[in-house]
Amino acid sequence: MRLPIRWVTGPDIRVELDLDQDLPAVFCCALEFESVVLNLVINAKDAMPNGGVLRVAAYCGDFDDGTTVVVRVTDTGCGMSAETARRAFQPLFTTKPVGRGTGLGLAMVSEFARRVGGSVQIESVVNCGTSVILRLPACRNQTNRGASR
Fold first, then answer.
1. What pLDDT, in 10s, does the model give residues 41-85?
2. CA-based diameter of the chain, in Å?
3. 2 with 34: CB under 8 angstroms?
4. The pTM is what?
5. At CB < 8 A and 24+ separation, what contacts does 19-23 make?
6. Do 89 and 111 touch, CB atoms closer than 8 A?
């Protein structure tokens, strides 16, 4: 992954990367995948205006429908209520002030996950932080062209 995560987050946020080395490929556009992860990182940064810890983890999971690559972006920010979390993937829904958010970022993440046959969910506790968990199906044939690594 070539994302400028540390550059985007700034000096007040400690970035922790926990990326398994031998992840299977996911059949998707690599640039779109990077945009999705970067979007999640920016949202996490915005949830921590006074700094905090941002953790990006990627690992392999086995689920009923096969092998899945899980990307988990976790922050120690303000968190969100259950109602906000339920609405977070709706297009044009935002908790950010006018001029700071379009409400399209998480909707785009959700649409990306759906298109590649995956899923996304939010786990959040007010005043404790949020995790966004992206589950993407691994390629069955590792020789697929265009697969993201």
1. 999 999 999 999 999 999 998 766 678 999 999 999 999 999 989
2. 45
3. yes
4. 0.85
5. 19/56, 19/57, 19/58, 20/58, 20/59, 20/60, 22/60, 23/58, 23/59, 23/60, 23/69, 23/138, 23/149
6. no
